[in-house]
Design goal:
With 73 residues, the protein is mainly alpha-helical. It is 67% helix and 0% strand. It has helices at residues 2-12, 20-26, 30-34, 37-48, 55-68.
C-alpha cells in the first residue's frame, strides 16, 4: 500500500499509469478486503487519485470499488 500511495500522486502529475502492483492488489477477492478494511480504505483513496489509467485497469478499479460499496471502506 505504501508503494502505491507514493506512486499515485506522481502519476496524477501527468503520465499514464498501468502498474502491475496496482493490478495485483485491486484484483484480490472481495473477501480479502472484507477482512482488511483499513487497507481497503487506503487503497480506495489511492485509486481515487489515478486519473489516466488503461481501460483494463479502470475496469479492475471499478470492480474493486463496486465490491467495497455498502462497506465502510
Amino acid at each position: 500500500m505504501e508503494i502505491l500511495r507514493d506512486t499515485a500522486p506522481k502519476q496524477a502529475e501527468g503520465g499514464w499509469f498501468d502498474d502491475d502492483l496496482l493490478y495485483a492488489v485491486i484484483t484480490r477477492k472481495p473477501e480479502v478486503w472484507a477482512t482488511a478494511p483499513e487497507p481497503a480504505h487506503e487503497l480506495k483513496e489511492t485509486v481515487a487519485a489515478l486519473t489516466d489509467v488503461s481501460r483494463y485497469v479502470r475496469q479492475d478499479i471499478d470492480a474493486f470499488l463496486s465490491a467495497l460499496s455498502g462497506d465502510d471502506a
